[in-house]
Amino acid sequence: QTTGSPFPDLSRAPFVVLPGASPEMVANEIVACLQAVESLERRTCRVFEAVAANVGMDLRDPLAVAGARIAADLDAGVAGQPRNAFHNSRHICEVLLCSLFLAKHAGLAGPQQARIAVAALVHDLHHDGTTNAGQPFRLEWLAMDAAQPRLAEAGVAQEETTRIAALVLATEITIGGPYARRCFRHFHQGGPAPAAPPGADPL
Fold this sequence. Notes:
- This protein has eight helices and no strands.
- By secondary structure, it is an all-alpha fold.
């Protein structure tokens, strides 16, 4: 995807993982994609629609319906993001697209990619522009509390909502991320079972 090219260019990163592509090539393609997103009307909706189609989501699937409604909320400003200098719709689109590439690079199946896409959309929902300030998971639970009504009204199953919550909590950098890495080492590399940190349920 070259600078000024239309969005989305499905032949390039982050929508595909090309064998033999150098890190520099991948980075340039993703940056070009993010630059293309800058000029979009209904930016979050357009990005989520492209990602949902790319991972094979049925538009009638509850997860797709919820994601589309959350994206529309972000574009309409009802989630408070326009007043946020960093954790705004631009940041959410960047995380959504980069998460898509990482999920593909990890070889995850379509449904797993879809779950990660919705979690990326949700992860900073209603971010208040401050920090967790010694209260781990405060902002992450703020995001999930804001997303819960949209997930429920779309008919997303509770088990799926719990999985999305776990992904969102794993974005908390002081406790959530390190705990998620210890879980990965336990389940995939034979590491010891980690103790769940307080406040991290369902992570």
